[in-house]
Amino acid sequence: MTQNENINSYHLFQQLQIDKIYDGKVRPVIVADNLRTPENMGSVLRLAANVGADKVFFLRQETEEVPRSWKIKKTASGADEKVAWKIIKPNELKEYIPSGFSLVAIETSEKAVNIFRTELPEKIAFVVGNEVHGISKPVLKMTDKTVYIPIPGVISSLNVTHALGIAAFEWLRQQFWNNTN
Fold it and tell me: Reduced to 3 states, what is the DSSP secondary structure of residue 82?
């Protein structure tokens, strides 16, 4: 991309005023259950900043330990300083989720519904899980709804941040652009 194209993209987004979509509206919350890698933690923070999330909570049994925080900072690309985030214990989750918010798990399970065929709540807290084991059973029991992303390819799983990105942008489409723009 040339510098001229970059300037044009910047001006396009200024003209569209996409950053104003949240004026007077609720922002989503993101919950990540026991992510293994600091790179994924940083990517979750970067995605949270991109979708305008209000807060990010990383669930871990040991809340004092921040695994290789410099890697989180590097992959967050500055989002770690622009998005409110906190490491909490799983049993503290309900205390931190704003009143009236629904916890929506992004997980393949028997009770999950296709994300593209269900209405996502306006007040949403997305829950994603560990890269290998998914969302833990105790955390999954706390959720109000479980959605899956239909994957037609030969590998039936996504990186945690890719799944979160698909879900967050589907929520944005439903809330702000569904049949209106």
Answer: coil
> In angstroms, how far is CA 122 from the centroid of its own chain?
14
User: Do 145 and 94 form a contact (C-beta atoms < 8 A)?
Assistant: no
Q: Return d(Cα 53, Cα 48) in angstroms, integer.
A: 5
- Interval 116-161: pLDDT, tens: 999 999 999 999 999 889 999 999 999 999 999 999 988 888 999 9
Summarised one tens digit per residue, pLDDT across range 43-90 is 999 999 989 999 999 999 876 666 668 777 778 777 778 899 999 999
Distances (CA, A) of 86 to 32, 55, 103, 145, 150: 11, 8, 17, 23, 31
| Separation of CA 145 from chain center | 15
Which domains does the chain show, CATH number per domain? 23-177 (3.40.1280.10)
Which H helix or E strand runs over 86?
A: strand 84-88
Rg over alpha carbons for the chain, rounded to the nearest Å, is 17
DSSP state of 38: H
